[in-house]
Amino acid sequence: MPTSGDIVELDLGAPTGQEAGFRRPAVLVTAQELLDQNPSVIQVVPITSSIRGFGSEVVIEADTANGLDQDSAAQCHQIRAVSAARVVTVRGNVGAADLHRIRETIALVLDIP
After folding, report:
1. Which are the contacts of 65, defined by CB distance < 8 A and separation ≥ 6?
2. Does any domain span residue 104?
3. Per-residue pLDDT tens over the stretch 70-82
4. pTM
5. Which of 26, 70, 94, 113 is paired with 8 by a 20 to 30 Å CA distance?
6. Nearest CA to 93 among 15, 7, 20?
7. Residue 95: inside a domain, yes or no?
């Protein structure tokens, strides 16, 4: 069963413009209450190893718990809904503190108080 904050490996397909694409890690940000209902569509934030310092990025330090090989950035400005079938595997979990920072940044991006 997926858990909010999981770093999942998924295939986003060919990108257009500057959007994230191809096979990459992403943070699962769907509320746990909804994940417990086994949805067919989930919300994810793509992760990149190219840290650019944008205000819409959250830096995630690599460790054994999250399964990242190097420090990376959650691209909160690229939140998207994807089919749960796109998930290839689960690498690990970002933990409560990083998930909270990611959700706060998504709220900022979407202008949600």
Report:
1. 92, 93, 95
2. yes
3. 999 999 999 999 9
4. 0.93
5. 113
6. 7
7. yes
Overall domain count for the chain: 1
Domain assignment present for 1: no
Amino acid of residue 47:
I
Alpha-carbon distance of 113 to 98, in angstroms, equals 19
Instruction: Give residue-wise pLDDT tens across range 11-35.
Output: 888 878 888 878 899 999 999 999 9
Residues 6+ apart with CB under 8 A from 18: none
- Which one, of 16, 12, 15, 18, lies nearest residue 45 by Cα? 12
Instruction: Provide the residue range defining the domain that includes 77.
Output: 6-109
Determine the residue type at 53.
G
Domain CATH code at residue 39: 2.30.30.110
| Rounded CA separation 52/46 (Å) | 14
Residue that is written with structure tokens 């904050």 in the block: 5
In a domain, 51, yes or no: yes
